[in-house]
Amino acid sequence: MITRSERTLNYAVLVLFSVIALFPVLLILSTALSPDEIGAGGSALSLEFGNFAEAWEQGNFGSYMRTSVIVAVSVVTLATLFSVMAGYAFGTMQFRGSEVIFYLILLGIMVPAEALVVALYFDLRSVGLTNTLVAIVMPQVAQSVAFGTFWMRAYFRSSSREVVEAARLDGAGHWRTLWRVLVPMGRPAITTMIVLMFMWTWNEFLIPLVMATDESLRTAPLGLAFFQGQYTAGTSLLAAGAVLVALPVVVVYLFLQRHFIRGMVEGVAK
Amino acid sequence: MTPGNDDARSRQVRPGRSMPARVWSGVGRATKEPDRARTASIGAASRAHRGRPGEPRRVAYLYILPATAVFVLFVLFPLVRSGWFSLYDWDGLGTGVWAGLANYEAVFTEPGLRGAFLHALVLIVFYAVIPVALGLLLAATMTRARMSGLGFFRVVLFLPQVIPMVVVAVAWRQIYEPQGPLNDTLRAVGLDSLARPWLGDYTAALPSVGLVGTWIGTGLCLILFLAGMAKIPRELYEAARLDGAGRLREFFAITLPSVRGELSVALTLTVIAALKTFDLVYVMTSGGPGNQTTVPSYEVYNNAFLIGRVGTAAALALVLTAVVFLVTLVINRIGEKADE
């Protein structure tokens, strides 16, 4: 029933759209690897990775990447810890007010950063906290925790009661049961959550833009945006910077792509 | 995608319904139950027998304390404060003057701010309508053939969703440059008259930004719908064929209803992305030329931090939040109907 030409056509469509999806990526990559028009030419060997080195040093991307790593590690660590704990309580324990609190947090998934950042900036400024890591990290922890609590609660609700019972019979308390039994069992769900939190944090632009005034606090996307404001588009240094900024997320994506797709589709409300 | 997706999605989309009808111990919920005494006694019995982890626990408050504290401090409180700010006329430095609802009035009447929402509507067409329509059309025509090697295409087509928006903006700025690849291509095929500085052109700038959204969303929609349609039993189509249904009838009677869940996911992701567009506009156009590409998020930033109209920015941000809530609810309805 399915002719060969039909199948070929299907693949042709997929290839066409893949080319379209890849074109901007390859354009940036090839620009980054080509010699800078303004630059002094250089030898054939130096032109390839020279741009990256120059972006890292002169373009200050080394500092931007370092800030981004610190921010991402802090946000993901805190948000994961808090989400696992809260999800555990909401998913397996019964307590007064649990539903009200949970749905309040759930609502938080939908609140866009735009709605928080104005008030946050002026209130944090009045306590002298703007232009600090706290101001960049904590709002993102809060947003990630909203999603993570929802995500982990779903996991803990579906987790096997028998296993928990067995752990308790063995004398494990609720804390031990959580970290020794449920968390190791829930590695796939937790990985998905971590991967999403990492991507959101690494790519976040508005919060660091508003909160960070010092150049040393600029995250990678922020640094790139400012860098691009200073140079015209299409220079190889800018492209090299762009590649550096995208690299961590893309590498993680290539290794854990199923988690990205699954998580984004299931966590639509974010 | 994985078969488990639908459960998780519906769990998410309709949290209210996913509450299992477990009796638990009845505490806190018992007030709602008609025969409270019995419920409570069953709960007590099961607790005594098995000591289920669902029993009332004070320690739960300790577990939710960090998450709740952070959430209250950095989401709930700022949200309430935004509401407060939105009632004042304040430049961010001096003392604010009570403004009542004047800021909200400005959001709906000031041409510049209303324009931002109109631009967001245009972006929804590019970010959501076109990718969803294109994805449905392509997936529907492709789905007859079982194909191998989809994994590779999935990785590539989903990639634009992952790349930092600032990087995407840098790449597309280069494409739209006066001497960039787009104009080069147009000139090469003899369409010189179409070539223009895309982002500096009054009429072309907004669609040019929108097209980037189309680029981001189309792959997502395509793989979502391909996965959804692959699950439709072939017998349905054969039966329809016997009834003499044409391809168009087939699409509206079988294909479209079957992928309602995927449709709701795709629309939520793309429409929200359109409404929250900020990075792209900030990096590519800064709202220009003129006010041609301003969007609500950009105006929030602009009013609060560049032109010193904090109250207006807060009002605008809250209106945007309300729109996001409303749109999410409406779109989730689409997915909900699928299960009825």
The amount of beta strand of chain A, in percent, is under 5%
* Helix share bin of chain A: over 70%
Cross-sheet strand order for the largest sheet of chain B: 1-2
Low-confidence stretches of chain A: 38-43
Q: Taking all residues together, what is the mean pLDDT of chain B?
A: 83
CATH superfamily of the domain at 71-219 and 247-266 in chain A: MetI-like
Overall, the morphology of chain A is globular
Element pattern of chain B in H and E: HHHEEHHHHHHHHHHHH
- Taken from the alpha-carbon principal axes, the silhouette of chain B is globular
Keywords (chain A): Cell membrane, Membrane, Transmembrane, Transmembrane helix, Transport
InterPro entries (chain A): MetI-like, MetI-like_sf
Family (chain A): Belongs to the binding-protein-dependent transport system permease family.
Domain ABC transmembrane type-1 (chain A): 65-256
Protein described:
The complex is a heterodimer of chains A (270) and B (340). In chain A, 79% of the residues lie in helices and 0% in strands. Chain A is globular. Chain A is built from 13 helices and no strands. In chain A, 53% of the residues are buried. Chain A has a domain at 71-219 and 247-266: MetI-like fold, CATH 1.10.3720. With 270 residues, chain A is an all-alpha fold. Chain A starts with a helix and ends with a helix. Chain A has helices spanning 4-33, 46-57, 61-92, 98-110, 113-126, 133-158, 161-169, 174-185, 187-203, 206-211, 220-230, 236-255, 257-266. Chain B is an all-alpha fold and 340 residues long. Chain B folds into two domains: 22-56, no CATH class; 106-338, MetI-like (MetI-like fold). In chain B, strands 1-2 form a two-stranded antiparallel sheet. In chain B, a hairpin with a 7-residue loop joins strand 1 and strand 2. In chain B, helix 5 runs parallel beside helix 9 (205-230), helix 9 (205-230) packs antiparallel against helix 12 (260-275) and helix 12 packs antiparallel against helix 15 (310-338). Chain B is globular. The relative contact order of chain B is 0.12. At the A-B interface, helix 1, helix 3, helix 4, helix 5 and helix 6 of A face helix 1, helix 3, helix 5, helix 6 and helix 7 of B. Chain A: It is a multi-pass membrane protein. Chain A: Residues 65-256 form the ABC transmembrane type-1 domain. Chain A: It is found in: Cell membrane.
